[in-house]
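Bumping with the actual sequence this time:
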Amino acid sequence: MSRFPSGAPVFLLTTTGRKTGRRRTIPLLYLADGEDLIIVGSQGGAPTHPAWYLNLKADPHAEAEIGTRRFAVRAQPVSEAEKSILWPRLVALYPPYAAYQRRTSRQIPLLRLIPR
């Protein structure tokens, strides 16, 4: 398993481009929540959502790769109630998330990737 310099785990997410239909792969940090992966649409606190997030909103079916393990996932938005529980865990995993939320007026979304 790959890790970010902070120690946070990293995986590869492959989505289908909502405009081009082409497959797009990006490395992201994740929080394991049972079998599911929790991912953060922070984009460093930018005013807009990241492209991968918009791609998953258009087509929630994607592929995850952790180490040599590849598997299909389905993205599901995290509710505000669930986010209130997960957010502190995510900030503990990667403290800059807190600064990213302060930097932007948008609510940074969380997605749950559920293995299919």
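The tokens above came from a reply further down the thread. The CA atoms of residues 15 and 71 lie 12 Å apart.
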